């Protein structure tokens, strides 16, 4: 029954690509899974772009899964691609 959430999400056009939907369906059928979405606490506020992930967390929760809205301050280097760091590219050279 829990795997029906995939059908619901697909019907709403919220699944475009997946690594292995068959395996995901099997895993969902075994029991609850944990799903999470992270938010940047350094931003001034949440905005409309955060609504879809929050609604997805709620859908998974309503289907009996564990939903986690995660907020954590990460160092700037964590979110910056290596190519975007001048200090990293000068010491590492071209990729």
What does this protein structure show overall?
This protein has helices at 4-11, 21-30, 51-62, 76-79, 86-92; strands spanning 34-39, 66-71. It is of the alpha+beta class. Strand 1 (34-39), helix 3 (51-62) and strand 2 (66-71) form a beta-alpha-beta unit. The mean pLDDT is 79.
Query: If you average the pLDDT, what whole number results?
Result: 79
Q: Give the CA-CA distance, first to last residue.
A: 47 Å
**How many β-strand runs?**
2
Q: What about the largest sheet?
A: 2 strands, parallel
Write the topology of this structure.
Layout: H1 4-11, H2 21-30, E1 34-39, H3 51-62, E2 66-71, H4 76-79, H5 86-92
Parallel strand pairs: 1-2
Which key phrases capture this entry?
95 residues; alpha+beta; 2 domains
Outline of the structure:
By secondary structure, this protein is α+β, with helices and mostly antiparallel strands. The protein has five helices and two strands; from the N terminus they run H-H-E-H-E-H-H.
């Amino acid at each position: 029954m829990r795997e029906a959430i995939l059908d619901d999400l697909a019907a709403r056009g919220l699944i475009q690509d997946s690594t292995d939907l068959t395996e995901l369906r099997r895993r969902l059928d075994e029991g609850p899974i944990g799903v999470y979405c992270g938010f940047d606490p350094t931003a001034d506020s949440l905005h409309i772009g955060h609504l879809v992930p929050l609604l997805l967390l709620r859908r998974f929760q309503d289907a009996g899964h564990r939903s986690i809205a995660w907020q954590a301050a990460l160092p700037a280097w964590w979110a910056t691609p290596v190519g975007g760091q001048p200090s990293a590219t000068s010491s590492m050279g071209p990729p």
